UniProtKB/TrEMBL annotation:
Protein name per UniProt: MoxR family ATPase
UniProt xrefs under InterPro entries: AAA+_ATPase (IPR003593), ATPase_AAA-3 (IPR011703), CbbQ/NirQ/NorQ/GpvN (IPR050764), ChlI/MoxR_AAA_lid (IPR041628), P-loop_NTPase (IPR027417)
Pfam families: AAA_3 (PF07726), AAA_lid_2 (PF17863)
Gene source species: Halorarum halophilum
Superkingdom of the source species: Archaea
Polar residues bias spans: 314-324
Amino acid sequence: MSDVDVDPAAVHATIREEVGRVLIGNDDVLEGITISMLTGGHVLLEGVPGVAKTTIANLVARATGLEYNRIQMTPDILPADITGTHVYREGTGAFELQKGPVFANMVVADEINRATPKTQSALLEAMEEANVTIEGETLPLPQPFTVIATQNPLEMEGTFSLPEAQRDRFQFKLTVDLPDRAMERQLLDRFDKDPTLGPETAGQVVDKATFLAAREAVEEVHVSEPVREYILDIVAATRDSPNVEHGGSPRATLAFLNAGKARAAIRGRDYVIPDDVKTLARPVLAHRLVLSTEAELGGESPVNIVDRLVNTVDAPSSVPSAESPQEADQKPAEHDSN
């Protein structure tokens, strides 16, 4: 169906253009979601009500033609409401498997922190293993598979904070900010011109086969030894910091590796540069850190700590390209201006 080249940069540009017919701003959030989808990751999306968190996910799903399901998380929702269960059919006298909404390419768990910890944990196997076990039967989830969980940072009443183990399963935590005045004016004008504008406006511009081919292309992106060491140094800095009780896990290290490849690919490069890693530090690390008691009492934030730690780690001064992996001491590092 699609005429888009399997080049990930072309795929991303096509998705961004189609989503941009409805969405105004939030390019960083759109890029983060695309990176996660290209690497099999999951996203924790935070923002106040009304900033289009769910709309962004819906738009991306429509642009890629992927199956999309939204689950409104509430205190009374049960694990079986997410994964599915066996239902007795009176007509046949037998139990029939009824798959839950988790069986989709993109699953939005809206206001995930309103569900109980038991229900939140129902997503763990799906996110980690890409399969679900229902009454002893293990079923694979469709590919690609991405969970986007949203939460409101302002309302704490009636919510259940995500435990560290579950936060660690999200490749990124992305923040959807309120638009500035100029951007909100564009929003006002656009919807005044077309009040029916919404996710259904976006059409499919990339087919699933093309998207899966782009995922394979991302896997081939080269990560040099200096960049690998840079990733390890940054994660180690979070573990050694006196402000951090628990730093980045090995899953965070892998998130840097995979996301760095995708970020390079959608910028037209077949090798990762230090700026890819540095730019990804906030969304990869901030939600994973458990601060020390002293840091919390001192009003420190995980984002500020990540920024300071990254600035203490020396970036590689030279980075080899994929074509010449032995040129580490000869090729100057590129710096991404975007």
